[in-house]
Amino acid sequence: MRQANDNARVGIFQSGGLSALAVGVWLHELSTPTRHYIADIGQAAPAEVAALASSLRQFGAEAVVMDLRSSIAAVASDLLRYRACHDGGYWNTTGAARFVLVSEVAPVMRADGCRTLAHGCVGGGNDQRRFARYGAQVAPELPIIEPWTNARALERFPDRETMLAAVVEHGLHLDPGSSAERSTDANLAGISHESAELEDLETPVTRLDPRWSKWPGQTPDEPEIVTVTFRDGRVADVNGSGPEPVEWMTRANEIGARHGVWLRDVVERRIIGTVCRGIYEAPGLELLGRAWTRLLQASLDAASRELYDRMATVLGAAMYEARWLEPAAQAAREAIDRLVGEVGGSVTLSVHRGVVQGERMKVAGGVVRQTRFGSGGNRWSQAAAVQTAVQTAVQTGKGQRDA
After folding, report:
1. What is the pLDDT of residues 82-128, one digit of tens each?
2. Arginosuccinate synthase-like N-terminal domain: from which residue to which, for each copy (predicted)?
3. Angle 201-202-206 (CA atoms, 0-180°, nearest 5)?
4. pLDDT, position 1
5. Is 180 buried (19+), middle (13-18) or exposed (0-12) by CB count in 10 A?
6. Which of 130, 150, 180 finishes a domain?
7. Contact, 227 vs 346, CB < 8 A?
């Protein structure tokens, strides 16, 4: 790791979280030329992102804002298509954000003349490894500064209380979900919550103050009907949103959050082999995941669905462990693409107080379906469309033989 005071410009991934801002203070105190790159990935309202950039400039730092909402929405579409979930079935939104940040921001840092990269991820954590792995693949010529493995940084900031004091002293705009005792990691696809209190497995999940969502008991009295349309294995519309991923992801988030569809309370197995509790808030993906799973069940035969689920497990681990660009993950995506590339239809759901109930569904193609009561109730019969196709094939073959 290159030292932080060698007068080479450092590009820092700046989230507005407490540890990232403290890294900015540390580099400033070392008189290290630093440029802060703030990625708008839907973590907060635009005014919050602008306030962070303004506070950094008043502090005397260079700050660049990059709108990456389309990029994070595209990756959220991948998470859904491939069902790339981790322990307990929660959506890999933090891992996805690290992939987007390094892939999109590192090339800009390099073009701007930065010679090293820095981030505020805690030492020994998942994100430290994610930045390292993606950095080695996307920008291998740029060394990474990992402050919370650096003795001088730890001496300056031995704990989060010290960090908070410095950030407040310099008037830097702190993300509202970050403090000495807790932190959130947010983007358009979802939010992770961590705190000293929540790390205790005896703490009730109801102690959490969700960022977007309501608890089921706080939701509207009446259910809401949601229709999700899929085309070629991807979301094409959510209640009139249109096919643009930022739009349908935003619409799904609003509906899911409003009706209490969001919670995952997980004791997850981490990259380094330990376990740690985390609370995850992904209302849009939770809602869309119900619709997508239902459509898959009606569209794939048994062997295809089994293979899909196996590849989804591979991809869930790949996104979590920052191996999304590696050959195994690429092969798994190609396999699923073959299976779901033509899957389409619409799924209508009823959403009410945290419960998502299937109402009706239209499927384009799909597996052979049978009916019983539609055939008189005393025998099973294939769907009429399938019978017609079989009869047509038989007649075509007979005609060819006669000719």
Report:
1. 999 998 899 999 999 999 999 999 999 999 999 999 999 988 889 99
2. 14-151
3. 95
4. 39
5. middle
6. 180
7. yes
Distance between CA 15 and CA 19 in Å, rounded? 9
Q: Which domain holds residue 256?
A: 187-364
Residue among 144, 116, 154 at smallest CA distance from 35: 116
Same domain for 157 and 298: no
CATH number for position 34: 3.40.50.620
The answer for residues whose C-beta is within 8 angstroms of residue 85's C-beta and 6 or more apart is: 79, 91, 92, 312, 316
Task: Give the integer Cα–Cα distance in Å for 83 and 309.
Answer: 8
> CB count, 10 Å around CB of 92?
28
Closest CA to 323 of 189, 137, 125, 143: 137
- The verdict on residue 5 lying in a domain is no
Instruction: State pLDDT tens for residues 259-317.
Output: 999 999 999 988 888 899 999 999 999 999 999 999 999 999 999 999 999 999 999 99
> Which has the closest alpha carbon to 260: 223, 216, 230, 217?
216
User: CA-CA distance, 225 to 227, in Å (whole number)?
Assistant: 7
One domain for residues 276 and 161: no
For the chain, give the secondary structure using H, E and C.
CCCCCCCCCEEEECCCCHHHHHHHHHHHHCCCCEEEEEEECCCCCHHHHHHHHHHHHHHCCEEEEEECHHHHHHHHHHHHHHCCECHHHCECHHHHHHHHHHHHHHHHHHHCCCCEEECCCCCCCHHHHHHHHHHHHHCCCCCEECHHHCHHHHHHCCCHHHHHHHHHHCCCCCCCCCCCCEEEEEECCEEEEEECCCCCCCCCHHHCCCCCCCCHHHCCCCCEEEEEEEECCEEEEECCCCCCHHHHHHHHHHHHHHCCCCEEEEEEECCCCCEEEEEEECHHHHHHHHHHHHHHHHHCCHHHHHHHHHHHHHHHHHHHCCCCCCHHHHHHHHHHHHHHCCCEEEEEEEEECCEEEEEEEEEECCCCCEECHHHCCCCCEECHHHHHHHHHHHHHHHHHHHC
Q: Exposed, middle or buried: residue 134 (CB in 10 Å: 0-12, 13-18, 19+)?
A: buried
Task: Report d(CA 300, CA 280) in Å as an integer.
Answer: 29
Query: For the chain, first and last CA: distance in Å?
Result: 77
